[in-house]
Amino acid sequence: MSAISPSSATVAAEQAAMAVWTPEHVRALAGLRHDSASLITDSDVVRVAPDLDVWDAWPVQDADGTPSALPGGKTLWMALGAPCFDDPDERHGHARIHLILRDAAGWHPLGPAMPDGFALGSREWSGSALLAADRRTVTLFFTATGRRGEAALTFEQRLFCADATLDGAYRLTDWRNLREFVVRDPAHYMASDAGSGAVGTIKAFRDPAYFRDPRDGRHHVFFAASLADSASAFNGCIGWATARNDTLADWDIRPPLISADGLNNELERPHVVMHGGLYYLFWSTQRHVFNPDGPTGPTGLYGMVSDRIDGGWRPLNGTGLVFANPDAAPKQAYSWLALPDLQVISFIDAWGSDGSDANARRFGATFAPMLRLRLQVDKAGLETDG
Questions:
Q1: CB of 362 within 8 A of CB of 84?
Q2: What torsion do the CA atoms of 303, 308, 309, 311 make, to the nearest 10 degrees?
Q3: pLDDT value of residue 362
Q4: Helices vs. strands in the chain: H and E counts, helices first
Q5: What is the rounded (10 degree) CA torsion for 90, 91, 95, 99?
Q6: What pLDDT band is residue 37 in, cutting at 50, 70 and 90?
Q7: Burial per residue of 31-63, b for 16 or more beta-carbon CB atoms within 10 angstroms, e otherwise
């Protein structure tokens, strides 16, 4: 079913609540120390499979965001996957959502999550997945990019969800109820095919991340988007939508929560974690998608905090930056996802490189070592050993 628009009075109130991530926030980084992840080494690069590159990942989760515990201490994950290419950027045009089982021995690939021809895009981009209380029904929220059968790849992005049944072999069967559950509102969100196809310039309407608010039980998704009617090519924002009831059939799309207009083009994979009675809204971004005419931040995990979900967001650490890649390897990892226990998963990107040498295109294509956040009201960083 199509999304249902809220009233004009509600829209006006939500527009007024939008937080702005500004050049002044990022400029303040120059005078502050920030946390950095440890260097990734050869021993950390353990591939899921020799012929499969994987990147953006998320767990099949319970309603509270915790990875769903399966028999034998296993958890089921999803990640974008593609065959190996000499140019790692080619993977985006071939992306499928893959199932991956995690147990004490590591990660085990199970193949594409959805059957061939089921999703309506020419490729599948990031999302999230919810295991119902019956422990059998999985709802996948995902990005359908392009259109099935298109002669040339386009960058239109649409938000879909579908249901499947989890069987005893950790496979998803009986895929059904495929629907475009959130439809772009052109009053607030630019068309995702309005930019070019060059890396760093693609506009966004993608990455739906499910969150159930423990205060009132309402269901939300947060997504990466681009502001409508912006005068800047760097018009990234974070949007959201709310389900009208527990059936997850009808959703209200809302005006953006956070704007980076004039500062940054991509606030990717936004997601919310609740900790200590506060909401933390995180996103990933890269140095090369900041406006070159203004201050630029490092590739890292960024975020804001609020005591309510619908506004009042303020940048963590006064700048938004939670932690970055190390200076010696500024592109070593990306696409961080914080879990409710504050563990953080990501993938290995251009590891072992300062970003300027021949190794800059070396693609790790596997899971990075887990990190753990430290959160204390509006201060955030990485936990360290000892």
A1: no
A2: -80
A3: 85
A4: 2, 23
A5: 170
A6: very high
A7: eeebbbbeebeeebbebbbeebbbbbbbbbbbb
Q: Across-strand partners of 210?
A: 221
Residue whose token pair is 């269901």 = 219
CB atoms within 10 A of CB 205: 25
Who's near 278: CB < 8 A, 6+ residues apart? 305, 306, 307, 377
Q: How far apart are CA 139 and CA 61, in angstroms?
A: 10
Distance CA(308)–CA(329), nearest Å, equals 36
- CA–CA distances in Å: residue 131 to residues 126, 191, 217: 17, 31, 16
The helix, strand and coil proportions of the chain, stated in percent and rounded to the nearest 5, come to: 10, 45, 45
CB 38 within 8 A of CB 90: no
- pLDDT per residue as tens digits for the range 289-298: 999 999 999 9
Neighbours of 132 (CB within 10 A): 15
Query: Quick one: pLDDT at residue 2?
Result: 46
> Which of these, 84, 121, 78, 80, lies nearest to 99 by C-alpha position?
78
How far apart are the C-alpha atoms of 117 and 114, rounded to whole Å?
Answer: 8
**Nearest CA-CA partner of 113 in 131, 127, 100:** 100
210-to-59, 85, 279, 340 alpha-carbon distances in Å: 11, 31, 14, 13
Q: What is the pTM of this model?
A: 0.95
| Best CA proximity match to 203, nearest among 231, 224, 223, 230 | 224
| Amino acid present at 242 | T
Rg (CA), the chain: 19
89 close to 120: Cβ distance less than 8 angstroms = no
Mean pLDDT of 284-292: 97
Which residues on neighbouring strands pair with residue 205, listed in sequence order?
225
CA distance to 146, 147, 215, 360, per residue, from 329 (Å):
33, 36, 40, 9
Question: Is residue 367 classed as helix, strand or coil in its secondary structure?
Answer: strand
